[in-house]
Amino acid sequence: MAKEVSAALYKVNLHCPDCAHKIKKPLMRIQGVHSVDVNFEKSEVKVVGVIDAKKIHERIEKLSKKKVELLKVESKFKETVVVEKVVKEIKEPIIHTHTVKVHLHCDQCAADLRRNLLKHKGIYEVKPDIKAQRLIVEGVIEGEKLVKHVRGKLHKHAEIVTSKEIKKEEIKKEEKIEEKKKVEEVKTAVKVIGAEEVKEVQDKLKAANTPYIIHYVYAPQWFSDEDPNACSIM
Question: Which residue among 9, 20, 90, 116 is least packed, with the fewest CB closer than 10 Å?
């Protein structure tokens, strides 16, 4: 049969916290003692466990070197076990998106590089861009470690493209698109003007009842007195 747990309460004069500590520590080493609660303000010591109250009484007197009074003993004492829940803060990993400048000379080279990079635990996704000669890498890996990994393990020269550089390139792309739009607008305007001029000539011919268009052909100015670069017969 399991031995009963009892609680014994003692009265002892404790004039400082150090005295209380000197009593509690040795009592906790006694076999059968589950807990020791020392109340410095009330000058009380409570010992819980499978204990002999008289032996504990003698032990406290020996430790404190003072008279100790046994106030009460509770048999069949029910211990209240306080379970402290330790909540660990799990930090969610921060996913970074890195733009890496690296030489990609063909589709197979880009596919091999992507496959090797995805073997890294900190890399989740790799999107190669052969035209831009870049890789877009997503994962928890930091930029410096990524570059070091590409250079050391994959033997490729790599550089991180900063956000400022990306913005500059985006601005340049937008400017090129605007320039193309302007050129197209000018071409369209020229075509419209040309069509309007042809229509104007056709309207004039119809008004003059001319069934054909007269083309003026000028003789070549090879032999011209006015042109200093023209040919001459000596």
Answer: 90
Closest CA to 159 of 142, 147, 169: 147
Query: What's this model's pTM, rounded to 2 decimal places?
Result: 0.37
137 strand-pairing partners:
98, 126
Q: Which class would CATH give 6-75?
A: alpha beta
Distance CA 45, CA 55 (A): 14
The answer, yes or no, to whether residue 230 has pLDDT greater than 60, is no
- Helix, strand, coil: what percent of the chain each, to 5? 40, 20, 40
pLDDT grade, residue 199 (50/70/90)?
A: low
Class of domain 96-165: alpha beta
Q: Where are the domains of the chain?
A: 6-75, 96-165
The answer to whether the Cα torsion of 227, 231, 232, 234 is positive or negative is positive
Alpha carbons 51 and 101: distance in angstroms, whole number: 74
Report d(CA 114, CA 118) in Å as an integer.
6
